[in-house]
Q: What sequence folds into this?
């Protein structure tokens, strides 16, 4: 069974990065987790940035439909006992309740080792997480990237173009390494 990884709001904020993370999960590399609070934060933030409310609702609905077991519930009673950054205690509580082995976030400093070690939880930057997936499952990741690029028709997008967008989205080392895997 694929290992569980909780995706913090910031890791699923950008559409391309979110799609990449979930495409690799759909291919079977890992099992994504999130909470209602994480998805509410995503919804609120994207709408505040000017993205159409209906489009955001569709995106979140699609995520939930694609991964019906991803929603972590019953973590609320753990929030106050978490010792990470107060604004991210709900994230750590959901990771713990969901049995996550990894928490994927750009906000590494908000989850110090003292807060995560008691739960045997590794906190990783999305770039490192995706590099790990590429290292473990190179063929699966490249096929997932190709399928992702193929889904984009307006405008059509090649895998190298997708990788350029991912580099700009905060995962440049993954994009560079995946690009090397594409070379004949």
A:
């Amino acid at each position: 069974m694929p290992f569980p990884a909780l995706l913090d709001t910031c890791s699923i904020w950008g559409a391309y990065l979110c799609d990449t993370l979930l495409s690799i999960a759909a291919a079977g590399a890992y099992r994504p987790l999130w909470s209602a609070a994480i998805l509410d934060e995503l919804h609120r933030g994207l709408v505040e940035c000017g993205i159409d409310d209906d489009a955001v609702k569709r995106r979140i609905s699609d995520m939930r439909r694609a991964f019906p077991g991803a929603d972590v519930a019953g973590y609320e009673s753990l929030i106050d006992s978490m010792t990470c950054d107060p604004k991210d205690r709900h994230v750590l509580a959901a990771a713990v309740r969901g049995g996550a082995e990894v928490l994927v976030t750009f906000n590494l400093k908000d989850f110090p080792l003292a807060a995560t070690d008691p739960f045997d939880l590794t906190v990783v930057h999305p770039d490192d997480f995706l590099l790990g997936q590429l290292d473990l499952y190179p063929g699966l990741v490249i096929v997932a990237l190709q399928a992702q690029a193929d889904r984009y028709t307006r405008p059509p997008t090649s895998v190298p173009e997708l990788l350029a967008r991912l580099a700009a989205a905060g995962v440049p080392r993954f994009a560079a390494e995946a690009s090397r895997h594409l070379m004949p």
Notes: Residues 3-126 form a domain with the Rossmann fold fold (CATH 3.40.50.1010). The chain has two domains: 3-126, 130-182. The first strand starts at residue 3 and ends at 7. The radius of gyration is 16 Å.
